[in-house]
Amino acid sequence: MTDSITQGLSTAGLSLYHSTTCWFCAKVRQKMADLGIDIELRDIGMNNGFRDELVREAGKGQVPCLRIDQKDGVAKWMYESSDICNYLEQHFGNASH
Ligand SMILES: N[C@@H](CCC(=O)N[C@@H](CS)C(=O)NCC(=O)O)C(=O)O
Questions:
Q1: Closest ligand 1 atom to 61 CA
Q2: pLDDT band at 3 (very low <50, low <70, confident <90, very high)
Q3: Among the listed residues 20, 19, 2, 21, the one whose alpha carbon sits nearest the alpha carbon of residue 89
Q4: Looking at ligand 1, which residue's alpha carbon is closest to its atom 2?
Q5: Contacts of 30 (CB under 8 A, 6+ apart)
């Protein structure tokens, strides 16, 4: 029992802007599956609103991009699949517990 729920961790406040045709996005979704975590997925290929939001708020339409809604109401945005995978590993991987 090593998933995020049994560990008492929460992915609330996280959302992944992604596209189903993007290999880098697939890498991040695979990392989520490996870690047994669920993060809200926002497909910019299917939803122009998500694409517009990504460009407007994060600066560019590149995916994957992890949105981290902080407690103070400010959103942090993380591009780069490797950085996102590392972030998820650090927060939800077994090694951190
Ligand atoms: N180095 C980036 C590459 C991401 C990337 O090239 N994403 C492509 C889709 S596969 C993209 O969003 N291209 C459109 C753009 O950069 O505006 C990563 O590892 O996340």
A1: 17
A2: very low
A3: 2
A4: 80
A5: none
Query: Is 22's C-beta closer than 6 angstroms to any atom of ligand 1?
Result: yes
pLDDT tens digits, one per residue of 7-39? 446 899 999 999 999 999 999 999 999 999 999
Instruction: Tell me how far the alpha carbon of residue 67 lies from the centroid of ligand 1, in angstroms.
Output: 16
| CATH code, 52 | 3.40.30.10
How far is it, in rounded angstroms, from Cα 95 to Cα 75? 26
Q: Provide the residue range defining the domain that includes 66.
A: 14-96
H or E stretch covering 15:
strand 14-18
User: Does residue 64 have its Cβ closer than 6 Å to ligand 1?
Assistant: yes
Nearest CA to ligand 1 atom 1: 80
Q: How many domains does the chain have?
A: 1
